[in-house]
Amino acid sequence: MSSVRKGRLFRASKARPLDALLLGGIVLVAVVSAFPLIWMVLSSFKTPAESMQVPPVWIPESVNFQAYGEVASVINAGRSFWNSAVIATTTTLGILITSLMAGYAFAKYRFRGRDLLFAAVIATMFLPPIVTLIPLYRLVGSIGLNASLAGVIVPNLANAFGVFLMRQFIAGVPDDLIDAARVDGASELRIVFTVVAPAVVPAIAALALFAFVYHWNTYLWPLTVLQGQVDSYPIVLSLSRLLSYNRGAMNTGLVMAGATMAVLPPLVMFLLLQRFFVDSIVSSGVKG
Amino acid sequence: MPRLTAYRSWNALPNKENTAGPCVRSGGPQARRSSPQPHLQNKSAMTHSPRTPILVMLAPAVSLVGVFIFLPMLLTIWLSFQAWSTQTGFGSTRFVGLQNYADLLSPLSVGRDFRQAFWNTAFYTALSVIVILPLSVALGLMVYQTRVAGGHVLRTVLFSTYMVPMIAVALVWSKLYSPNEGPLNQIIGWFGFDRQLWLSSPDTALASIVLLNVWQQVGYFTVLVIAGLTQIPTSLYEAARIDGANPVQSFFGVTLPLLRRTLLFSAVIAVINAVQVFEPVALITQGGPANSTNVLTYYIRRVGIERAQGGLGSAMAVTLMLALIVVIVALFAFARRGDDDK
Lengths: 288, 342
Description:
Distance between the termini of chain A: 16 Å
Distance between the termini of chain B: 33 Å
Largest sheet of chain B: 2 strands, antiparallel
Helix content of chain B: 55-70%
Number of helices of chain B: 16
CATH class of the largest domain in chain A: Mainly Alpha
Number of strands of chain A: 0
CATH architecture of the largest domain in chain A: Orthogonal Bundle
Strand order of the largest sheet of chain B: 1-2
Number of strands of chain B: 2
CATH class of the domain at 108-341 in chain B: Mainly Alpha
Largest interface: A-B, 133 and 135 residues
Oligomer: heterodimer
CATH architecture of the domain at 108-341 in chain B: Orthogonal Bundle
Number of domains of chain A: 2
Shape of chain A: globular
Helix content of chain A: over 70%
CATH superfamily of the domain at 108-341 in chain B: MetI-like
Radius of gyration of chain A: 24 Å
Order of helices and strands of chain B: HHHHEEHHHHHHHHHHHH
CATH topology of the domain at 108-341 in chain B: MetI-like fold
CATH topology of the largest domain in chain A: MetI-like fold
């Protein structure tokens, strides 16, 4: 990263006060940006009385895990987490497989209508899900997948963004590598998964991260397709049930504990895989 | 897109190709010395026909996108001319011409609510874009500069918020905004501002949702800007410095003009993301107070799914799609005009 970052935007002047101001600005922005999440975690440890106090209590007197236990009993958190994990991982796997295959075809095959087909697929990236929600809901119902995890998963097993990303990266894989595998008699499918895929690992990691996080977090489609089938709720849907539980009374700690639990998996995944994300940006910078 | 939004940072990868949007240029950087697609000749020399692998590779992605995105999109358009209950099959539609659209323009309550949702969404979208774009440039420069340490950490912190499920964002911010026991009123009180009602007042509720949206998303757009900044050759800054430009001048003379494609792309994504606002409304405000946070994604779902008025909801969805096309075309035209000015 450092080699690309020598922007020298501010190098011309040497004023110390400017440095202090800049550093102060960075700290301020970081604190403001982190504040809601810090407040969420702190609030999850508060007692109900502390949550209701005016002016607000910032730091709870003691670390109190009671709210977490309560979340687990109110929404069957284990089941919700399992549902979220199933939805996010199977969807991510599906997206990786379909995107690798189609990305390979668009990058390395030449056929009539290729650019038109690619443009048509890519155009769907710009379509907000609400535009297709109503018929999709009926369509998924008519193939018998309503109110099930399969109904949440199946329509999302391929998407334009993954195809686009894979095409961009696979285009940079040398043709010689692929030809060598062909000469060895490898089938095209084998080439995709054993020759091309290892060459685009950073892109795969990045796509996996974003697919996982997106499908862990997504709300509108599961809410619509699951039709109140609480047993199949992923954690983000279960959270909304916390809010209505004991509503208006002292449920802040409960809600914050639930939110903290739901936030952790995508956040941890991001912090672990950040490197790939950075790598992807840098390498694309080099490529461009 | 959301499929796009989803993976938002991807857009971050933009070399010139992706910032140019969905247009497709084959070849690109890899079209090097060897003749394009040399393997094809090799392949035709081999025994199997090339058509089979093409179909095999494309079938999963193309059929899924076709069945679950393209087909529903066409159905939405078709349904917008039908009277149809979402609870019944596609066979039980009745053609009504433009009646659904007429209803949306009529003084019926569904028409009034729709128009309010439309303008609320427009306001929400415009305000989000107007706040996010300049902020992302400022934050991008803060991360990208090398004068003082902390850029890396800042990027991580900023981007972390983008990983937080919107539902959790909505829950946390609804507590932050709480007029009595929430910390925001306390904090603005330290600076001498009056207590606000935030989500509880029709005057401030929608802007309050914009604020939480900006908080969640700005890190993503900051990363887009950083990716754009890495594309600007250092030599241009050197040249500007030799010409005697101060940092402010080189920002307006070099940085900003060269970020224009990135910012165009950011604007398009920000618009598409903004029209998807749903969770804070569905969970916290339910469109209120006084319809002030009724937005399209919320209202279309309410009419089309909850009230099962599939035809009417589809007409709303088509209207949204048309409005988006107009806005995106206008953004591209605006950026192109900038190009001509140069």
